[in-house]
Amino acid sequence: MSAGTKDHYAVLGVERTATEAEIKKAFRRKARECHPDVCSEHDAEERFKSVNEAYDVLSDPSKREMYDRYGTVDPRMGGGGRPDLGDVFGGFGMEDLFSVFFGGVARGASRRARTQGRDMAVQVMITLEEAAEGVDREIAVNRLVPCDECGATGSSDGSGTKECSECGGAGQRRTQQRTFLGVMQTVAPCERCSATGQLIESPCAECAGQGRVPDRDHVSVEIPAGIDDGMQIRMRGMGEAGFRGAAAGDLLVTVRVPPHEFLHREGSDLHARMSLTITEAALGAEMEVPGIDGDVTVTVPAGTQYGDQLSVRGAGMPRLRGSGRGDLFVHAAVEVPRKLTKEQREILGQLAGTFGEEPRATPLDRLKEWLTG
Questions:
Q1: Is 248 contained in some domain?
Q2: Which one, 64, 115, 291, 305, has least CB within 10 Å?
Protein backbone atom coordinates (compact mmCIF):
# COMPACT_ATOMS: atom_id res chain seq x y z
CA MET A 1 0.00 0.00 0.00
CA SER A 2 1.48 3.36 -1.06
CA ALA A 3 2.47 6.05 1.42
CA GLY A 4 -0.39 8.32 2.37
CA THR A 5 -3.05 5.72 1.50
CA LYS A 6 -5.45 4.94 4.35
CA ASP A 7 -5.69 1.38 5.62
CA HIS A 8 -9.48 1.02 5.82
CA TYR A 9 -9.20 -2.33 7.56
CA ALA A 10 -7.07 -0.79 10.31
CA VAL A 11 -9.50 2.13 10.66
CA LEU A 12 -12.36 -0.29 11.42
CA GLY A 13 -10.11 -2.63 13.39
CA VAL A 14 -10.82 -5.76 11.32
CA GLU A 15 -8.73 -8.30 9.42
CA ARG A 16 -8.52 -8.23 5.63
CA THR A 17 -10.46 -11.51 5.63
CA ALA A 18 -13.34 -10.01 7.64
CA THR A 19 -16.86 -10.94 6.55
CA GLU A 20 -19.56 -8.44 5.62
CA ALA A 21 -21.24 -8.96 9.01
CA GLU A 22 -17.96 -8.37 10.87
CA ILE A 23 -17.31 -5.17 8.92
CA LYS A 24 -20.81 -3.89 9.65
CA LYS A 25 -20.49 -4.66 13.37
CA ALA A 26 -17.09 -2.95 13.55
CA PHE A 27 -18.44 0.12 11.75
CA ARG A 28 -21.31 0.52 14.19
CA ARG A 29 -19.00 0.15 17.19
CA LYS A 30 -16.43 2.64 15.85
CA ALA A 31 -19.15 5.14 14.82
CA ARG A 32 -20.50 5.19 18.36
CA GLU A 33 -17.04 5.55 19.88
CA CYS A 34 -15.76 8.50 17.86
CA HIS A 35 -18.90 10.47 16.97
CA PRO A 36 -18.25 14.16 17.85
CA ASP A 37 -21.42 14.30 19.98
CA VAL A 38 -20.11 11.65 22.39
CA CYS A 39 -16.32 11.89 21.99
CA SER A 40 -14.54 14.93 23.42
CA GLU A 41 -11.16 14.27 21.78
CA HIS A 42 -9.97 16.97 19.38
CA ASP A 43 -9.70 14.61 16.38
CA ALA A 44 -13.12 12.95 16.85
CA GLU A 45 -14.64 14.50 13.74
CA GLU A 46 -11.76 13.42 11.50
CA ARG A 47 -11.83 9.90 12.94
CA PHE A 48 -15.58 9.74 12.40
CA LYS A 49 -15.15 10.73 8.75
CA SER A 50 -12.43 8.11 8.32
CA VAL A 51 -14.73 5.43 9.78
CA ASN A 52 -17.50 6.37 7.33
CA GLU A 53 -15.08 6.42 4.40
CA ALA A 54 -13.70 3.00 5.35
CA TYR A 55 -17.19 1.50 5.62
CA ASP A 56 -18.28 3.03 2.32
CA VAL A 57 -15.42 1.19 0.60
CA LEU A 58 -15.41 -2.12 2.47
CA SER A 59 -19.21 -2.59 2.49
CA ASP A 60 -19.39 -2.35 -1.31
CA PRO A 61 -18.12 -5.59 -2.93
CA SER A 62 -16.90 -3.90 -6.12
CA LYS A 63 -15.11 -1.09 -4.26
CA ARG A 64 -13.60 -3.56 -1.80
CA GLU A 65 -12.27 -5.74 -4.63
CA MET A 66 -10.69 -2.67 -6.28
CA TYR A 67 -9.23 -1.54 -2.95
CA ASP A 68 -7.81 -5.00 -2.16
CA ARG A 69 -6.21 -5.20 -5.60
CA TYR A 70 -4.84 -1.67 -6.02
CA GLY A 71 -5.01 -0.15 -2.56
CA THR A 72 -7.33 2.60 -3.79
CA VAL A 73 -10.72 3.23 -5.39
CA ASP A 74 -9.43 6.15 -7.45
CA PRO A 75 -11.72 6.48 -10.54
CA ARG A 76 -8.64 6.76 -12.76
CA MET A 77 -7.96 3.11 -11.88
CA GLY A 78 -11.53 2.02 -12.55
CA GLY A 79 -12.88 2.36 -8.99
CA GLY A 80 -15.86 4.29 -7.72
CA GLY A 81 -14.04 7.26 -6.22
CA ARG A 82 -14.27 8.67 -2.72
CA PRO A 83 -17.68 9.53 -1.31
CA ASP A 84 -18.64 13.06 -0.36
CA LEU A 85 -18.59 12.53 3.39
CA GLY A 86 -20.48 15.75 4.00
CA ASP A 87 -23.47 14.16 2.28
CA VAL A 88 -22.78 10.48 2.86
CA PHE A 89 -26.16 9.97 4.47
CA GLY A 90 -28.08 11.78 1.76
CA GLY A 91 -29.30 15.36 1.81
CA PHE A 92 -28.28 16.40 5.34
CA GLY A 93 -25.19 16.40 7.52
CA MET A 94 -23.90 13.53 9.61
CA GLU A 95 -24.64 15.46 12.79
CA ASP A 96 -28.31 15.63 11.83
CA LEU A 97 -28.43 11.94 11.02
CA PHE A 98 -26.87 10.78 14.29
CA SER A 99 -28.28 13.49 16.56
CA VAL A 100 -30.99 11.20 17.86
CA PHE A 101 -28.89 8.03 17.60
CA PHE A 102 -26.21 9.47 19.86
CA GLY A 103 -28.30 11.29 22.41
CA GLY A 104 -31.94 11.62 21.44
CA VAL A 105 -31.79 15.28 20.51
CA ALA A 106 -29.36 17.62 18.82
CA ARG A 107 -27.09 19.67 21.05
CA GLY A 108 -28.61 22.94 22.15
CA ALA A 109 -32.17 22.01 21.25
CA SER A 110 -34.94 22.82 23.69
CA ARG A 111 -37.80 20.86 22.14
CA ARG A 112 -38.80 17.26 22.59
CA ALA A 113 -36.72 14.78 20.62
CA ARG A 114 -37.93 13.82 17.19
CA THR A 115 -39.01 10.18 16.93
CA GLN A 116 -40.17 9.97 13.31
CA GLY A 117 -37.41 9.22 10.81
CA ARG A 118 -36.18 12.09 8.67
CA ASP A 119 -36.58 12.30 4.92
CA MET A 120 -33.46 11.66 2.88
CA ALA A 121 -32.44 13.01 -0.51
CA VAL A 122 -30.31 11.41 -3.22
CA GLN A 123 -29.67 11.98 -6.92
CA VAL A 124 -29.60 9.53 -9.80
CA MET A 125 -28.23 10.18 -13.30
CA ILE A 126 -29.91 8.74 -16.41
CA THR A 127 -29.62 9.34 -20.15
CA LEU A 128 -32.28 10.94 -22.34
CA GLU A 129 -32.89 7.54 -23.94
CA GLU A 130 -33.53 6.02 -20.51
CA ALA A 131 -35.87 8.91 -19.69
CA ALA A 132 -37.84 8.08 -22.85
CA GLU A 133 -38.13 4.35 -22.10
CA GLY A 134 -38.27 4.34 -18.31
CA VAL A 135 -35.67 2.45 -16.30
CA ASP A 136 -35.11 0.69 -12.97
CA ARG A 137 -31.99 1.93 -11.21
CA GLU A 138 -30.42 0.49 -8.06
CA ILE A 139 -28.76 3.00 -5.75
CA ALA A 140 -26.76 2.59 -2.54
CA VAL A 141 -28.04 4.56 0.45
CA ASN A 142 -26.34 4.97 3.83
CA ARG A 143 -29.08 5.44 6.39
CA LEU A 144 -30.45 4.44 9.79
CA VAL A 145 -32.35 1.13 9.57
CA PRO A 146 -34.37 -0.81 12.18
CA CYS A 147 -32.16 -2.77 14.56
CA ASP A 148 -32.50 -6.51 13.93
CA GLU A 149 -31.04 -7.39 17.32
CA CYS A 150 -33.95 -5.94 19.33
CA GLY A 151 -36.64 -5.78 16.65
CA ALA A 152 -36.43 -1.96 16.61
CA THR A 153 -37.71 -1.73 20.21
CA GLY A 154 -34.41 -0.58 21.70
CA SER A 155 -34.84 -3.09 24.54
CA SER A 156 -32.54 -6.07 24.98
CA ASP A 157 -35.07 -8.15 26.90
CA GLY A 158 -38.39 -6.86 25.57
CA SER A 159 -39.19 -4.99 28.78
CA GLY A 160 -40.02 -1.87 26.78
CA THR A 161 -40.04 1.69 28.11
CA LYS A 162 -41.42 3.58 31.07
CA GLU A 163 -42.23 7.22 31.63
CA CYS A 164 -39.31 9.36 32.73
CA SER A 165 -39.78 10.40 36.34
CA GLU A 166 -37.64 13.52 35.93
CA CYS A 167 -39.78 15.21 33.25
CA GLY A 168 -43.02 13.27 33.63
CA GLY A 169 -42.88 12.11 30.03
CA ALA A 170 -42.66 15.66 28.62
CA GLY A 171 -39.06 15.32 27.42
CA GLN A 172 -38.35 18.79 28.84
CA ARG A 173 -37.45 20.15 32.23
CA ARG A 174 -38.72 23.53 33.38
CA THR A 175 -36.73 25.46 35.92
CA GLN A 176 -37.47 28.76 37.63
CA GLN A 177 -34.97 31.30 38.82
CA ARG A 178 -35.67 34.47 40.77
CA THR A 179 -33.93 37.54 39.28
CA PHE A 180 -34.22 41.32 39.74
CA LEU A 181 -36.63 41.22 36.78
CA GLY A 182 -38.81 38.69 38.52
CA VAL A 183 -39.16 34.92 38.21
CA MET A 184 -37.64 33.65 34.96
CA GLN A 185 -38.64 30.26 33.59
CA THR A 186 -36.39 28.26 31.30
CA VAL A 187 -37.04 25.06 29.34
CA ALA A 188 -34.26 22.60 28.55
CA PRO A 189 -34.10 19.02 27.23
CA CYS A 190 -34.36 16.38 29.89
CA GLU A 191 -30.91 14.83 30.16
CA ARG A 192 -32.04 11.65 31.86
CA CYS A 193 -34.28 10.50 28.97
CA SER A 194 -32.43 12.41 26.21
CA ALA A 195 -35.57 14.53 25.65
CA THR A 196 -37.69 11.52 24.63
CA GLY A 197 -39.92 11.41 27.73
CA GLN A 198 -39.34 7.66 28.01
CA LEU A 199 -36.71 5.54 29.73
CA ILE A 200 -35.65 2.09 28.66
CA GLU A 201 -34.55 -0.23 31.44
CA SER A 202 -32.44 -2.70 29.45
CA PRO A 203 -31.02 -0.93 26.36
CA CYS A 204 -30.00 -3.05 23.39
CA ALA A 205 -26.22 -3.20 23.13
CA GLU A 206 -26.30 -3.08 19.32
CA CYS A 207 -28.31 0.15 18.95
CA ALA A 208 -27.78 1.71 22.41
CA GLY A 209 -31.53 1.67 22.98
CA GLN A 210 -32.39 3.64 19.84
CA GLY A 211 -34.06 0.80 17.93
CA ARG A 212 -32.09 1.66 14.79
CA VAL A 213 -28.53 1.39 13.54
CA PRO A 214 -26.49 2.96 10.70
CA ASP A 215 -26.26 0.70 7.66
CA ARG A 216 -25.72 0.67 3.90
CA ASP A 217 -28.70 -0.46 1.85
CA HIS A 218 -29.48 -0.90 -1.85
CA VAL A 219 -32.77 0.52 -3.09
CA SER A 220 -34.39 -0.11 -6.47
CA VAL A 221 -35.91 3.05 -7.97
CA GLU A 222 -38.52 2.73 -10.72
CA ILE A 223 -38.10 5.76 -13.02
CA PRO A 224 -41.14 6.27 -15.27
CA ALA A 225 -40.94 7.00 -19.00
CA GLY A 226 -41.17 10.71 -19.80
CA ILE A 227 -39.52 12.01 -16.61
CA ASP A 228 -37.67 15.30 -17.02
CA ASP A 229 -34.45 16.66 -15.57
CA GLY A 230 -34.82 17.81 -11.95
CA MET A 231 -38.05 15.91 -11.22
CA GLN A 232 -38.31 14.03 -7.93
CA ILE A 233 -39.62 10.59 -7.02
CA ARG A 234 -40.83 10.17 -3.43
CA MET A 235 -40.38 6.66 -2.00
CA ARG A 236 -42.57 6.39 1.08
CA GLY A 237 -40.95 4.89 4.18
CA MET A 238 -37.56 4.42 2.49
CA GLY A 239 -35.80 7.22 4.37
CA GLU A 240 -34.33 7.20 7.88
CA ALA A 241 -35.86 4.63 10.24
CA GLY A 242 -37.89 6.01 13.13
CA PHE A 243 -36.81 6.07 16.78
CA ARG A 244 -37.75 2.78 18.52
CA GLY A 245 -40.13 1.65 15.79
CA ALA A 246 -41.64 5.06 14.96
CA ALA A 247 -42.60 5.84 11.36
CA ALA A 248 -39.75 6.03 8.86
CA GLY A 249 -39.10 9.06 6.68
CA ASP A 250 -39.26 9.16 2.88
CA LEU A 251 -36.51 8.92 0.29
CA LEU A 252 -36.57 11.75 -2.27
CA VAL A 253 -34.83 10.77 -5.49
CA THR A 254 -33.94 13.67 -7.80
CA VAL A 255 -33.51 12.53 -11.41
CA ARG A 256 -30.83 14.29 -13.46
CA VAL A 257 -30.80 14.03 -17.27
CA PRO A 258 -27.67 15.59 -18.86
CA PRO A 259 -27.85 17.33 -22.28
CA HIS A 260 -28.02 15.02 -25.30
CA GLU A 261 -25.44 15.03 -28.08
CA PHE A 262 -27.95 15.64 -30.90
CA LEU A 263 -31.35 16.32 -29.33
CA HIS A 264 -32.65 19.27 -27.33
CA ARG A 265 -35.70 18.73 -25.13
CA GLU A 266 -38.50 21.21 -24.44
CA GLY A 267 -41.21 19.52 -22.39
CA SER A 268 -42.36 16.48 -24.34
CA ASP A 269 -41.03 17.86 -27.66
CA LEU A 270 -37.57 17.29 -29.09
CA HIS A 271 -35.53 19.51 -31.40
CA ALA A 272 -32.76 18.49 -33.79
CA ARG A 273 -30.58 20.17 -36.43
CA MET A 274 -30.46 18.85 -40.00
CA SER A 275 -27.75 19.81 -42.48
CA LEU A 276 -28.82 20.19 -46.14
CA THR A 277 -26.89 20.87 -49.32
CA ILE A 278 -28.15 23.62 -51.61
CA THR A 279 -29.44 21.04 -54.08
CA GLU A 280 -31.29 19.08 -51.37
CA ALA A 281 -32.87 22.27 -50.12
CA ALA A 282 -33.81 23.42 -53.62
CA LEU A 283 -35.05 20.10 -55.05
CA GLY A 284 -36.36 18.44 -51.87
CA ALA A 285 -35.19 15.14 -50.36
CA GLU A 286 -35.84 12.33 -47.91
CA MET A 287 -33.39 12.72 -45.00
CA GLU A 288 -32.52 10.63 -41.94
CA VAL A 289 -31.95 12.40 -38.61
CA PRO A 290 -31.14 10.89 -35.18
CA GLY A 291 -34.26 10.45 -33.04
CA ILE A 292 -34.82 9.26 -29.49
CA ASP A 293 -35.80 5.76 -30.70
CA GLY A 294 -33.40 5.60 -33.66
CA ASP A 295 -33.16 7.34 -37.02
CA VAL A 296 -36.26 9.23 -38.19
CA THR A 297 -37.13 9.90 -41.84
CA VAL A 298 -37.89 13.55 -42.60
CA THR A 299 -39.44 14.72 -45.85
CA VAL A 300 -37.75 17.93 -46.99
CA PRO A 301 -39.99 19.92 -49.38
CA ALA A 302 -38.46 21.63 -52.41
CA GLY A 303 -37.44 25.20 -51.72
CA THR A 304 -36.62 24.70 -48.03
CA GLN A 305 -34.87 27.74 -46.56
CA TYR A 306 -32.24 28.01 -43.87
CA GLY A 307 -33.95 27.94 -40.45
CA ASP A 308 -37.18 26.35 -41.69
CA GLN A 309 -38.73 24.04 -39.12
CA LEU A 310 -40.05 20.63 -40.11
CA SER A 311 -42.04 18.46 -37.70
CA VAL A 312 -42.49 14.73 -37.25
CA ARG A 313 -45.61 13.88 -35.26
CA GLY A 314 -45.22 11.54 -32.29
CA ALA A 315 -41.43 11.27 -32.54
CA GLY A 316 -40.78 13.17 -29.30
CA MET A 317 -40.75 12.13 -25.62
CA PRO A 318 -43.56 10.19 -23.89
CA ARG A 319 -45.87 12.46 -21.89
CA LEU A 320 -45.36 11.75 -18.20
CA ARG A 321 -48.90 12.69 -17.23
CA GLY A 322 -51.15 11.84 -20.14
CA SER A 323 -51.14 9.69 -23.24
CA GLY A 324 -49.14 9.84 -26.43
CA ARG A 325 -45.84 11.47 -27.22
CA GLY A 326 -44.56 14.88 -28.16
CA ASP A 327 -43.23 15.85 -31.59
CA LEU A 328 -39.78 16.06 -33.14
CA PHE A 329 -38.96 19.45 -34.67
CA VAL A 330 -36.15 19.46 -37.21
CA HIS A 331 -34.41 22.76 -37.99
CA ALA A 332 -32.97 23.02 -41.49
CA ALA A 333 -29.41 24.27 -41.87
CA VAL A 334 -28.54 24.79 -45.56
CA GLU A 335 -24.79 24.56 -46.05
CA VAL A 336 -23.25 26.48 -48.96
CA PRO A 337 -19.98 24.98 -50.30
CA ARG A 338 -16.94 27.14 -49.59
CA LYS A 339 -14.90 25.90 -52.57
CA LEU A 340 -16.09 25.19 -56.11
CA THR A 341 -14.37 23.61 -59.10
CA LYS A 342 -14.24 25.47 -62.42
CA GLU A 343 -16.97 23.22 -63.82
CA GLN A 344 -19.18 23.81 -60.80
CA ARG A 345 -18.76 27.58 -61.16
CA GLU A 346 -19.78 27.41 -64.80
CA ILE A 347 -22.85 25.32 -64.00
CA LEU A 348 -23.93 27.66 -61.21
CA GLY A 349 -23.33 30.63 -63.50
CA GLN A 350 -25.59 29.08 -66.13
CA LEU A 351 -28.20 28.39 -63.44
CA ALA A 352 -28.02 31.99 -62.32
CA GLY A 353 -28.66 33.07 -65.89
CA THR A 354 -31.85 31.02 -66.04
CA PHE A 355 -33.03 32.94 -62.97
CA GLY A 356 -32.39 36.21 -64.75
CA GLU A 357 -29.51 37.10 -62.46
CA GLU A 358 -26.82 39.38 -63.87
CA PRO A 359 -23.33 38.01 -63.27
CA ARG A 360 -21.47 40.11 -60.75
CA ALA A 361 -17.88 41.09 -61.45
CA THR A 362 -15.33 39.69 -59.03
CA PRO A 363 -12.47 41.84 -57.69
CA LEU A 364 -10.16 40.08 -60.18
CA ASP A 365 -12.50 40.94 -63.06
CA ARG A 366 -12.54 44.59 -61.96
CA LEU A 367 -8.73 44.63 -61.75
CA LYS A 368 -8.40 43.20 -65.27
CA GLU A 369 -10.88 45.78 -66.58
CA TRP A 370 -8.89 48.62 -64.97
CA LEU A 371 -5.56 47.38 -66.40
CA THR A 372 -6.92 46.98 -69.91
CA GLY A 373 -9.04 50.07 -69.83
A1: no
A2: 305
- Mean pLDDT check: name the lowest of 100-109, 218-227, 228-237, 355-364: 100-109
| Confidence (pLDDT) at 35 | 67
Q: What is the pLDDT of residue 270?
A: 97
pLDDT tens digit sequence for 325-338? 999 999 999 999 98
Structural domain total, the chain: 3
On whether the pTM is more than 0.70, the answer is: no
Domain residues for 358?
342-372
Q: Which residue has the higher pLDDT, 350 or 111?
A: 350
- Burial level of 139, CB count in 10 A (0-12/13-18/19+)? middle
Q: How many percent of the chain have pLDDT more than 70? A: 84
The last residue of one of the domains, among 61, 83, 105, is: 83
CATH number of the domain to which 296 belongs: 2.60.260.20
Assigned domain for 101 exists: no
* Same domain flag for 67 and 30: yes
Q: Is residue 64 part of a domain?
A: yes
Residues 6+ apart with CB under 8 A from 306: 281, 332, 333, 334
Residues 68 and 8 in one domain: yes
- SS3 letters across the chain: CCCCCCCHHHHHCCCCCCCHHHHHHHHHHHHHHHCCCCCCCCCHHHHHHHHHHHHHHHCCHHHHHHHHHHCCCCHHHCCCCCCCHHHCCCCCCHHHHHCCCCCCCCCCCCCCCCCCCCCEEEEEECCHHHHHHCEEEEEEEEEEEECCCCCCCCECCCCCEEECCCCCCCCEEEEEEEECCEEEEEEEECCCCCCCCEEECCECCCCCCCCEEEEEEEEEEEECCCCCCCCEEEECCCCCCCHHHCCCCCEEEEEECCCCCCCEEECCEEEEEEEEEHHHHHHCEEEEEEECCEEEEEEECCCCCCCCEEEECCCCCECCCCCCECCEEEEEEEECCCCCCHHHHHHHHHHHHHCCCCCCCCHHHHHHHHHHC
